Amino acid sequence: MSSSYGSIRGDATAVAFSKATLRGLSQIFLIENALSGALILAGAAVFNVWAAGLMLLGSIVQNAVGFASGQRTDALQGLRGYNGALVGASAFAALGGGTEAVCITLVGAAACHGVHMLLERIFSTSVLTWAQLPVATAPFCIVADLIFDVLWPLLKEGEPTSRAELLRGGVTGIFNNFSEVILSDGVIPGLLILVALAVGSLRVAAFALAASVLSIAVSLVANVHMEQISTGMLGYSPVLVAIALGAVFLVDRSWTVRVGAATVGVLVAMVVHIPINKLPVPQYTWPFLVAMWLVLLAINAPRALRKRRTGASAPAPKAAG
């Protein structure tokens, strides 16, 4: 009887861990949904099986470290997997498949957990807790920069898919804005990711699609060549910013505030992309992080000042997803 119970319990744990791993993939787009994660993985696999495999490995590793360190609740929600998945994606982008990429994914995904915990502590200090800043993809950016720009200086860069024609380039750019989030490329992977977002949350999908279209429109107004726009390199951070500000971290605010914040966030992300892109390191999702944090600081500062004047305690930081 005890043996049977242990087997059932083990099976349940395995199922829970598997779902958590897939949720880790969906949390790249700030969604908690295992089916969405599976569709995102399928989109990556259409681009390249190695890319999908390394993303899955990264999510597994970071999730395992999260479970082992007692962060079970966050791990079950996928909040201890998405940065590891992005490290796997960056390992493929830099090295392709192979033993080296696997080893870097293993080490980098495990390191993301420690960086995540450190940033959570920093953001929860009395100096910053009022701003309610989410950790988001900062651990991935920090770990990937350290690995590929300090420890692994020689990288190989592939040529992204692009189109020079206005109509075809615009369509390609809309979907590449999604696929580039996971460092993939192509219309089909991007379309699968958009479907994954819709499965997880129609609100998230709507903000993401609107941001993708807006980023292309702004780029055209700024006289950026369509061939560059269609790669998705200018639009993937705006997509993430719109999701974060419009559908996730400001849900207690009015619809007008959320739409306005998402719109401003998209524009800020596109502006900060310019100086960040000139730095001697890959930009990853730094434009998204900088834009999101700046807008949240601007929005939360007045409320924090009012509470300080009235003597109210600072709000607890939101879950760092």
Q: How is this structure best described in words?
A:
- The radius of gyration is 19 Å and the shape is globular.
- The chain has 14 helices and no strands.
- Helix 2 (34-47) packs antiparallel against helix 3 (49-68).
- It is an all-alpha fold.
- Mean pLDDT is 87; it is low at 4-8 and 154-158.
- Principal-axes geometry comes out as globular
What's the pLDDT, averaged over the residues? Answer: 87
Task: Report the order of strands and helices.
Answer: HHHHHHHHHHHHHH
* Sheet of most strands: none
Distance between the termini: 40 Å
Low-confidence stretches: 4-8, 154-158
Radius of gyration: 19 Å
Percent helix: over 70%
SS-based class: mainly alpha
Task: List the topology elements.
Elements: H1 2-26, H2 34-47, H3 49-68, H4 72-76, H5 82-95, H6 99-123, H7 138-151, H8 166-179, H9 187-200, H10 202-221, H11 226-229, H12 236-248, H13 255-277, H14 286-310
Helix pairs in contact: 1-2, 1-3, 1-5, 2-3, 2-9, 3-5, 3-6, 5-6, 5-7, 6-7, 8-9, 8-10, 9-10, 10-12, 10-13, 12-13, 12-14, 13-14
Notable traits:
mainly alpha
